[in-house]
Design brief:
Elements lengths: L5 H10 L6 H13 L1 H8 L5 E2 L2 E5 L9 H18 L6 E6 L5 H14 L3 E5 L5 H10 L4 E5 L8 E8 L9 H10 L15 E4 L1 H15 L5 H6 L2 E4 L9 H8 L4 E3 L25 H10 L3 E5 L6 E6 L5 E3 L2 H19 L5 E6 L5 H9 L2 E5 L3 H10 L4 E7 L3 E4 L8 H17 L4 H12 L1 E10 L2 H17 L4 E2 L2 E8 L4 E4 L5 E3 L8 E5 L4 E6 L5 E10 L7 H18 L4
Helix pairs in contact: 2-3, 4-5, 4-7, 8-10, 8-15, 10-15, 12-13, 12-16
Length: 575
């Protein structure tokens, strides 16, 4: 049966030629007979690099993660590496997470690299993404690959590319590599490995990484306070179990309780609906254990261990889940305090993203350090370190539960950030305070902020069209008021414009183009709309703020901010 779209049919026909193995061809025939809609979804486009590399559903087809789409990527990358580094034998390091097929896909990528004469270091078992970023520089590699789909559902996998500085691909390399990949056919892929060019690694890097993490994540807490800090940790069936417990141990934390039911790596994530620490449900088992043993802090990491969610005790003695912005500002403040005690030299900076809390800018101003704001995605924060070599990066993060401590890793790093969170709890114990009280103290000094994220899932081809239309409507029918507050500024990152809606002056945004719209109101609210680069979602980020005079007023002010958020959601029909 021929597909009505000739472009889709041409792709299907190609995948039924002898270039592709019989198993692949049989799967396509099965879809033709049983699920034509899935067949269309699998072939209607090519998978593209987004904010986190290439990520998609596993299966046959040009729009799926499989040996051929990843093989073509790796062949293109091999060609680019050899052309970019003609005087040396390029080296690549490869890691993978707990996802189904991650180990076999990692081996496939290693085979293609080696077939092209590239030296490969391959982790022999699953390892956290931040360790891969670290290993690129530590081993003197020109690039790194990690097979992961981060916190996506079980049917996903992905392919993240890192460059020689340990950061993810950014311009101009990303576009140049994509151009190289697009110039290839599937017949160009070299699958036949050169085994002597593939070297298995694991402990060789593990201990060095842990030592650096302890060095960067340990500060002023006493050894006694560390011993008294009761920690519940869950790896959510992911890679963090390989490094986090040992890192905490070497840093002096001995009262660590691991959620046993979630400790074994498993790409099906049997105990959670979604292995995403942004979602409260993912931490339910950890929260239950923490209540039973009266823990001070709960920490959960996503499958590839670059994001973390935490809960700490509030002033009623109950565990309080924190959002990514709250964790980020507390961690950033703690680092700034440490640097202040050591003596700021005047060249330091912190960083965050355009959809994260405006409170980060307030912290930078209070400590007289530079604040740099970039597009969503940690690759842009890592790029800042490369772009400003005379500046010293203290730390920074984004609202989506990612944080980076210093620059020994050039990506969000839940190993070191987990240690930093525990360090704050232990330090607060020494001071007769708590993580939660330190957050409230920040609100009294720098303004009380509250954020809300709404993610609308729109799957498949029709969903992509719906997301596109939503952004078009927001641009062409821009709201003059949101939640009863007058819109005073509109930033359009696709057009690189910032328009003052009062006097209609327009300035240019000096950042790369991105499909993001941000509305600012006269009362300091901020509403951003952005299609996800890695998932079939459109996301709305809401930030509201109000002054907080006394910590005792927090509940009342929080209620007021909740009402603001509700009004904004209602206005944008996001309830």
């Amino acid at each position: 049966m021929q597909h009505k779209d000739s472009n889709i049919q041409a792709r299907i026909d190609e995948w039924l030629t002898p270039i592709f193995d019989t198993t692949t061809q049989q799967e396509i025939h099965n879809l033709q007979n049983t699920d034509p809609k899935e067949l269309e979804e699998s072939f209607y486009k090519n998978l593209e690099f987004g904010t986190g590399g290439m990520r998609g559903i596993m299966g046959v087809g040009t729009n799926r993660i499989n040996k051929y789409t990843l093989g073509k990527n790796t062949q293109g990358l091999s060609n680019y590496l050899k052309r970019t580094f003609p005087e040396i034998q390029p080296k690549a390091v490869i890691a993978y997470d707990c996802r189904n097929q991650s180990d076999t896909l990692a081996k496939l990528v290693a085979d293609v690299f080696s077939a092209n004469g590239i030296k490969v270091f391959l982790f022999s078992e699953l390892r956290p993404t931040p360790e891969l970023s670290f290993a690129v520089k530590e081993l003197g590699c020109q690039c790194g690959i990690v097979l992961t789909a981060s916190h996506n559902p079980p049917e996903y996998n992905g392919y993240k590319v890192y460059w020689e500085d340990g950061g993810q691909l950014v311009p101009p390399q990303d576009a140049e590599i994509i151009q190289e990949i697009d110039s290839l056919t599937y017949a160009d892929i070299k699958f036949d490995a050169t085994p002597e060019l593939i070297e298995l690694i694991d402990d060789k890097i593990d201990q060095v990484f842990i030592e650096r993490s302890v060095k960067n994540g340990s500060f002023v807490a006493t050894s006694e306070a560390k011993k008294q800090t009761k920690i519940v940790f869950t790896s959510l069936h992911g890679t963090s179990i390989t490094l986090v417990p040992e890192t905490l141990k070497q840093a002096g934390y001995t009262d660590v309780h691991i959620v046993a039911e979630q400790a074994s790596p498993d790409g099906n994530f049997p105990t959670v609906v979604s292995p995403n620490p942004e979602e409260p449900e993912a931490l339910e088992m950890a929260m239950k254990l923490a209540r039973e043993i009266d823990a001070d802090i709960v920490i959960g990491t996503d499958p590839d261990c670059d994001r973390l969610g935490i809960a700490v005790k509030n002033n009623e003695g109950n565990l309080q889940l924190l959002n990514g912005n709250q964790t980020m500002v507390t961690m950033t403040w703690f680092l700034l305090e440490h640097y202040k005690m050591q003596g700021l030299k005047g060249n330091e900076f912190i960083a965050s993203t355009i959809v994260s809390t405006p409170m980060m800018r307030n912290l930078a101003e209070a400590y007289n350090v530079d604040y740099k704001e970039v597009l969503t995605g940690f690759k842009w924060i890592a790029k800042l370190i490369k772009d400003f070599p005379d500046k010293h990066f203290i730390g920074g993060g984004e609202e989506s539960f990612g944080f980076m401590v210093g620059d020994f890793v050039r990506d969000k790093d839940a190993v070191t950030a987990t240690l930093l969170a525990c360090e704050i709890v232990a330090y607060a114990k020494d001071k007769g305070s708590s993580f939660y009280n330190m957050l409230l103290d920040l609100y009294t000094k720098h303004g009380c902020y509250k954020e809300s994220l709404i993610s609308l899932v729109k799957k498949g081809r029709d969903g992509a069209k719906e997301i596109q239309q939503t952004m078009i409507d927001l641009r062409t029918k821009a709201p003059k008021e949101i939640g009863g507050e007058k819109v005073v500024l509109i930033e359009d990152y696709q057009e690189s414009t910032s328009e003052n809606t009062q006097d209609h002056t327009v300035t240019t945004l000096d950042v790369p183009k991105s499909n993001v719209l941000i509305f600012y109101t006269e009362e300091g609210s901020k509403i951003a709309a952005r299609p996800s680069g890695t998932e079939p979602k459109i996301k709305f980020y809401i930030s509201v703020q109000a002054p907080l005079k006394e910590e005792s007023d927090y509940k009342a002010v929080e209620t007021k901010l909740d009402q603001k958020i509700h009004a904004i959601k209602s206005d944008l029909k996001l309830d």
